[in-house]
Amino acid sequence: MKIYFQVAGVLPIFDSAVCLVIQPSYLIFMLKNLNCMFYSSLEILDFVESLYELLGGSVSVTAIGHVSHTKKNWEHGRLFSLQDQIDHKMDFIQHELKNIDAPILLVGHSIGAYISMEMFRRSPEKVIYYVGLYPFLALNSESRKQTTIGKISASPILCAALSSIVAFLGLLPRWASGFIVSNSLGKSWSSTAVEALCSHLLKYHTIRNVLYMAMTEFTRLSEPLDWVFMREKRSQIAFLFGIDDHWGPLQMLEEISKQAPDVALSIEREGHSHAFCCTEVGSLWVAQHVANLIKNQISSAD
């Protein structure tokens, strides 16, 4: 298994979303951006490793992530929108995979599901399968958390203040920041996830980019989905929803079933949260689900 980290385009491949290479195909996994739950590339290692094993160990793993959602401020404070991040992922396909004659499988988590769907729309000749995990595809007017995040992300003053507070926590000794995280939002998280948050994400430039991207997400996701495309590619699309997930509510599942009735839809009922990749048990369960989908899709295509 190979895991490459691209820091804002400096290295040839990664930062917080992931690409899994399944011979003879490419499987690209797009993570959620860092808003709210502060996921990073390191936090999905349990998921990636589990999926690698479940697919028989014949997978090369690459990771593509969000520009400037990184430990180092490689972009010197520049802010990147959702569209910038989509273009960044498309650049990877167009440049890093241009000489690789292999079909692509896309797997996206949360906003990564939206990004992956956009990549699918822009490269339908290369992509053979898409999976959206706990997908954030449209705004949820009933979510107070989304309303609050939308208000904060729309205010430069609040964004600067929140980013400064988070950056201050990042200046604390690692044991202190780890203690705070483990006893607050990371109570059930794996040690890998806690370490990732403390070492990579408690940075001013990272949180400013998280909030800026969130602002542009809320604008973009107020637009209707491309249901025509989803119906056309229905046999190549699958979604996994959670029971109580305000980012990917069951209302969206119902809407997909109405607009594109032949799309494969599943509901996770094991009690894992939207932040499944931050726990070992959640990572394993979702990895098993994705592995089964991939195996079934490949076998049906043979």
Structure report:
- This protein is of the alpha/beta class and 302 residues long.
- Helices cover 45% and strands 13% of the residues.
- The protein contains eleven helices and seven strands.
- It has a seven-stranded mixed beta sheet, sandwiched between helices.
- The longest helix has 22 residues, at 280-301.
- It is globular and about 55 Å long.
- It is found in: Lipid droplet.
Q: What's the short version?
A:
Its main location: other. One of its GO terms (biological process) is lipid storage. The chain is an alpha/beta fold.
Biggest sheet: strand arrangement: 3-1-2-4-5-6-7
Relative helix content: 40-55%
Order of helices and strands: EEHEHEHEHHHHHHEHEH
Spans of at least 5 consecutive residues whose pLDDT stays below 50 are: 1-24, 32-42
How many distinct beta strands?
7
Structural class: alpha/beta
- What is the terminal separation in angstroms? 25 Å
Beta strand %: 5-15%
User: Major sheet: size, sense and barrel closure?
Assistant: 7 strands, mixed
Mean pLDDT over the residues: 80
CA gyration radius, whole angstroms: 18 Å
Shape: globular
Number of helices: 11
GO molecular function: lipase activity
Keywords: Hydrolase, Lipid droplet, Membrane, Transmembrane, Transmembrane helix
Protein name: Lipid droplet-associated hydrolase
Transmembrane segments: 6-29
